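Archive transcription. Copying these from loose printouts into the bound notebook so they stop getting lost. Printout 1 of 2:
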Amino acid sequence: MKNKLFRKTDLIIILAVALAAVAFILWQRMGDTPLTAEISVNGKTVESVDLSKITDRVEIRPEGAENVLIVAEDGKIRFEASDCPDKLCVKQGELYRKGDTAVCLPEKTVITVTGAELDAVTY
């Protein structure tokens, strides 16, 4: 008997898994809610930024942490500069999903991205 690389049932299973993956990705993207970035210094929220309305570059120097530069653009937010020695907050990169968080410990500054509802990532 001759062995084939793929049988008919193998192709059906592969197609079913691929369709399920595409459906899951589309379902995740359709449920997008407006995102808000909360900037906190010393545990107090000093600024809220509606990321869904940000298209141009917006520079933020939070009150109480003037040595920190936060930049929001194209629906994303990030630490761009800080006086902290290790620059871990800057290396964290862009935040653009619910539950994303970046912290600058020396400056006691936290950026948290929130949405309208809880999901498995933010819970």
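Printout 2 of 2:
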Amino acid sequence: MGNFDKVVEKKIKEAIENNEFDNLEGFGKPLDNSEYFNSPEEDRVAFHIMKNAGIVPEELKIRKEINHLIKEIKDCTDKTEKEKLKKELSMLYTEFELVMEQKKLKKTK
């Protein structure tokens, strides 16, 4: 371990001892990696780089909306609202399929 690594490690330990990480968003909660593992394996690295750059591909935006809607449907108790959410989910699945088909066509050209 080099000097820089030792300094960084020391700073991290000090921050932990001073409870500086306790108020971070998501502290104590499991990481949600579902978006990562729901994306095609061959695209994961590219998506990760794009996400870090603040660029989100259309299919990931749609997947995020789909996951959100699935959770809403699961938690919804109103029958009318649940049906409305299911229709919206169906439209999102169709939109996702169209985006993926367009992506597939671009790869074959």
